[in-house]
């Protein structure tokens, strides 16, 4: 079997003494194939940057191993890992122009001047920084510095490219354009890349697979589609997706040929038992205490649905977001057309079983997606 391009095995990071300091990354095991783009996605402080810096060699690994292109690197200094990194804080060399910054590693790799020029010009065009190549880092904006840093990392030939919040400083329009170009650039050259981001749109657009992290723990590592359609647990389910998944505690019972989900404040959702696979019914019977989740775009207004009182109705130019008081909380619905409902109106909420996600209330682990076992 081909070795992974990057393999982390049981990696822990403690800031301060092992087992007593801040436990930033917990027993992280993951592998990237050659040519793959992976996004580390998570909220602030979840351990993304610590992970990236351990791979690059700027932070020591407290426990575990890291291999790049089949070779253990976790005890090597950064320069010997053959890893190119674009830093969130840019870290351009101040005495060098943008052109010289981008060209630096290429010259060190003894490429001819013509090759260096061609590569620098190509990446500068892609990142729209051609007009600032002669300027010094101190005289350009944060967004321009960020693109220069990204260019410097992308032009290098390396076993692995690490991109830390590579477009955090750019305005949305430019970000959207660059995302597509950068992905094309990486794919065309077969580079292997990890990017750190807290922006799920960026992760979805760029990555082949997304590693969702929380509290230093890898929650799920899969394609954007699987993560959206089959979240492994309540954290991933509610973290990924915009607006977030609606969730409600529920008591599941099966009687009289029906599956009944009792939500707070006397709200009940009932479905014919036959809608669910037999294994799902067995699991629900055994669990009873669950959390149900439904994505806002899957909630429907129906005349025979459960009554809910409209709290807000916002038209966002291309879709409507309705929030309604439901089961002691709020349920959010997304509709594509402008909805003519006012605050205080009663609407009927319909949730089809194929759109239900059911989680174990005790552990948060997913139990059911649609009508099948998770
Ligand atoms: N040098 C340090 N000393 C002590 N604790 C640190 C240090 N660097 C990071 N931490 C802690 O480790 C945890 C993970 O931080 P890390 O920077 O890896 O998270 P992150 O997901 O990249 O966050 P962000 O998106 O805000 O950059 C946090 O609790 C953070 O406070």
Automatic annotation (TrEMBL):
Gene3D superfamilies found in the cross-reference section: 2.40.50.100, Nucleic acid-binding proteins, P-loop containing nucleotide triphosphate hydrolases
Molecular function GO labels: ATP binding
Keywords: ATP-binding, Cell membrane, Membrane, Nucleotide-binding, Translocase, Transport
PROSITE patterns attached to this UniProt entry: ABC_TRANSPORTER_1, ABC_TRANSPORTER_2
InterPro entries from the UniProt entry: AAA+_ATPase, ABC_transporter-like_ATP-bd, ABC_transporter-like_CS, ABC_transpr_FbpC, ABC_transpr_MalK/UgpC-like, Mo/tungstate-bd_C_term_dom, NA-bd_OB-fold, P-loop_NTPase
ABC transporter domain mapped to chain residues: 6-240
Protein family per UniProt: Belongs to the ABC transporter superfamily.
Protein name, entry field: ABC transporter ATP-binding protein
